[in-house]
Prior knowledge:
Elements: E1 2-14, H1 15-19, H2 24-27, E2 38-50, E3 53-57, H3 67-71, H4 81-87, E4 97-99, H5 105-108, E5 112-114, E6 121-123, E7 129-133, H6 134-141, H7 153-161, E8 165-168, E9 175-176, E10 184-188, E11 195-202, E12 205-209, H8 232-249, E13 252-254, E14 263-269, E15 272-279, H9 281-285
Parallel strand pairs: 3-4, 4-7, 7-8, 12-13
Antiparallel strand pairs: 1-2, 2-3, 5-6, 9-10, 10-11, 11-12, 13-14, 14-15
Amino acid sequence: MRLYPIQAGNFKLDGGAMFGVVPKSLWQRTNPADSKNMIDIAARCLLIEDDERLILIDTGMGNKQSEKFYSYYFLWGNDTLDTSLAAHGFHRDDITDVFMTHLHFDHCGGSVQWNKDKTGYEPAFKNAHFWSNKAHWQWATEPNRREVASFLKENILPMEVSGQLKFTGVPDTVIQKKSELGFDIFYANGHTEKQMIPMINYKGKTICFMADLLPTAGHLPIPFVMGYDTRPLLTLNEKELFLNLAADNDYYLFLEHDAHNEIITVKHTEKGVRLNETFTCNTIFN
């Protein structure tokens, strides 16, 4: 098995929304804001090369939305999903599986693209299966009013129409062992229904793709919960459970949205679980 970080682009989000009720005087120490109160956000995806499978976890925003849409998110940098794949010697047509932690637009927008005539949409990975789970799919296709702006039909429905959509089996337990993709999955419901956190066994280490359960290293204190979460009190419990597991078992936490920290480990302290070490992907994956 080999792992590769895939940079699908960078953007900015409002720091207050990213940290909910936490005062700016606290969160700006780790996530400094610009004059518009926006903080740097990455769309760092993960590519798993495992025998004949090439599994991509999340796909970023994509490039099919309007200029007005992207203007809300202050895109920055030159990274794209295609250039990042190419830097590792791959093309999107090589991808066999696209695993989506959840279907918010910044996690799955790159899974669908315009067709050649720009008259409709088609899967952006023509040879891949697209993986979600039934509970989250229903949640996303029948969205509540809180999340309706995050679940965009053009990002989601073409995967089903194409016949390339598949579902993982959600277990009765919090962690699904050895999923259909070969890795364990931690299911979290505070941010959105049945968000999936992949836990990958790699060279004796457990690499956890944190998605929106832990957006940045600055979100490590348990009460530092995003304003975007639909059930923040549930997020508190899920973060506490997972971060204690991570500290107990020396998990390596792959941060999808942290523009400046790629992988971290955590430790127990008198104040709770806190940052232990930071690593680059090259350090851990090579």
